[in-house]
Amino acid sequence: MTTSLTIQDLIRHFEDRLRRIDRQDLDDTGREPQFPQIVIYLGGDAHSAHQAVSSNLLQIWPQYQSELKFLWVQEEESKLSFSELSPEGSRALSEDGVQELASSLFGTRMHFRDRSKLLVYYILDTTAFLSKDDLLAWFPRMNRVKELMCAHSTDILDVLFLLLNENLSRQKTAAQIRDHLSGFYQGNDVRQAVGSVLLLSNRRSDNAILEDWGICYQILSAAIVLSNNADPRVAASFFSGSVMTASYAREEKPLPQIGQVVVKGLIDELSKAVPPRDIRPLDDPRLPEKLGVTKQGTLALLDEYAESCLFALLPSEEQLELFPRRDSSSQTSMAILPARAFNEYTMGAWEQYLGSIVRKAQEKLSMDSAVRATWREAYRALLVENFSREELLYLAGHLQDVEDLLTAPKAPGQDAPVLSAAQEQLKYMLSSDREVVRIFLSALEEQGRAAQDFADMWNSLLRSMRRIHTVRDNNIATFYDRKVRHFYDRCGADICQEFADMHDTSELAQFLTGTLDRIVDSDEIFSSAFEDELENRLNEEALPTDAKQYIRKKLTGNEVFVYLQTNFALGEPLVSSILLKAGTPLHNNLYNNLPPTTYYYDTGSSTTAEALVIYEVTAENLVNGGEL
After folding, report:
1. Which of 36, 393, 515, 560 has the fewest Cβ atoms nearer than 10 Å?
2. Cα-flanking dihedrals φ and ψ of residue 158, to 5°?
């Protein structure tokens, strides 16, 4: 069966390889979560955030894969249902199971440094809400979840991440929700259900409407990372009893685009190594030799079997004298007679004797599966050595022609001495037997199927290229196209030959991922920090060369948007933070140029820098911002 393989799979492999390089051999992988925490998705739409949020968190805290907990809560027939989400899948939980999940976070095997608090992050998506009543319905459910977390005996700090859909078709509902949130400061039911609210709208401060929640999922992830922090100044800002919103910017090594350019370049080069379709191996005069056929038309593997197993069954010269003869008084030495004469002299007994040897061999072969399997494997290896995938595919499609060629040995002459002629006759009789030859044809059929599977996988891989968009950044495309070409200048001949010699689909996936790894190892640009990678690219195109200044502007300049539209300006930020790898030149540059109140969180990752600024949203901004 053909294994599925797509361009997207290869791009993901490439991205993962670069991320692993970023993490390997690091003594300090960044800060770790301070307190036990659980992320709770409320309802079906919120569940869509899980893949992005969990992946983002595990990129920063990879060692906490078994300790970060994710719970999905749904309302089904007026009852709450619970599912724990993990890399292994979804697992239904009872209410007791939810309590056990919360309890497990405080276990001695967990690596959280401070077990004095439990941080709870609710995520709620309003996209399907028809009115504010859909929001209000979730508050008693949240209180029930909190009870299951043993809120009376556990110090819980919680925040609701509210994804507010403000599409033009949902403005009325969105306005109702914003208006209701304004009552948070007067202690309404929102305040009773949760300590703080981080409100993120799909209508940004520049009036643009987001097509999806992707960037907001990144904001949520960064907020979780930043708030689960030993620094009380930062953590207290998130759990201070406010409605908040955020501005966010992210600059990173463009791993998907780099991967796409490199993978496409690899596939394009290999496509050139695929021979034209018009292949007709039946016209090749060397075809019999390549199929393992001797000059006498017998199969070499069967000849070897005859020599090793059947020749020993032939009588000795002395035993030939014991055969019945037409003239018993003749003193002629039987061993010197030609085969034809000997057979006539023995009245056909000699031919019958040879036939019995072959029949016994056939019977033995029909019962000896080990010998047949050995022959098939040996013949398969011969086919792989002598034919390309395309040739095997053609031959398997013309099996009758091949069978006719394999079962048409030349009948040996009968004028040689009887025992010498008998050896050639046994070889001839074996190779003339279509049932025996069928063993070898089955190996050709098997290899033909493998060639077809390979062709199907390769063609599917090529078709999958149509489903990816062209990399529009000419700087990235040109820079990494050149890197692929340089790699092929050095290694292309060997790689193309290895590809041409390949016959199995399992080998293809391993070969492609291994070649991508070789490309990564071929140039230090692939493992460099993202600011160094950017500076290299900009230098080659004679663009601004100060990458650190460029990144600083992208993270803190005028193009950084707040993910909530308000009528009045927001006040001073509660938290202004940068998340990046500490100790790098970029970190030092930002530290020396940004206000001293900026907080720096060490993610341990040199592929990304994020700027997250948290603002408190006043009741006036919620009411007025929500009016139509």
Report:
1. 560
2. -130, 155
pLDDT digit string (tens) for 548-564?
888 999 999 888 999 99
SS3 576: strand
What are the tens digits of pLDDT across the range 142-165? Answer: 999 999 988 677 899 999 999 999
Name the residue among 66, 67, 62 with its Cα closest to residue 22: 62
Q: Which DSSP string do the residues of 57-93 spell out, in sequence order?
A: HHHH-GGGTTT-EEEEEEEETTEEEEEEEETTEEEEE
| Token representation of residue 441 | 């044809």
**R_g (Cα) of the chain, nearest Å:** 38
Cβ atoms of 547 and 584 within 8 Å: the answer is no
Using CA of residue 185, residue 188, residue 193, residue 197, what is the dihedral sign? negative
What is the rounded distance in angstroms from the CA atom of residue 602 to the CA atom of residue 226? 10
Give, in order, the Cα–Cα distances in Å from 604 to each of 65, 67, 533.
Answer: 16, 19, 17
The lowest-confidence range among 214-218, 424-428, 515-519 is 424-428
Apex 187 CA angle, 184 and 191, nearest 5:
60
Residue 444 contacts by C-beta under 8 Å, 6 or more apart in sequence?
379, 383, 392, 395, 396, 399, 402
| Integer angstrom CA distances of residue 204 from 182, 217, 245, 579 | 19, 14, 11, 22
Q: Is the pTM of this model over 0.85?
A: no
569 burial type by CB count under 10 A (0-12 exposed, 13-18 middle, 19+ buried): exposed
Q: Say if residues 192 and 142 touch (Cβ distance below 8 Å).
A: no
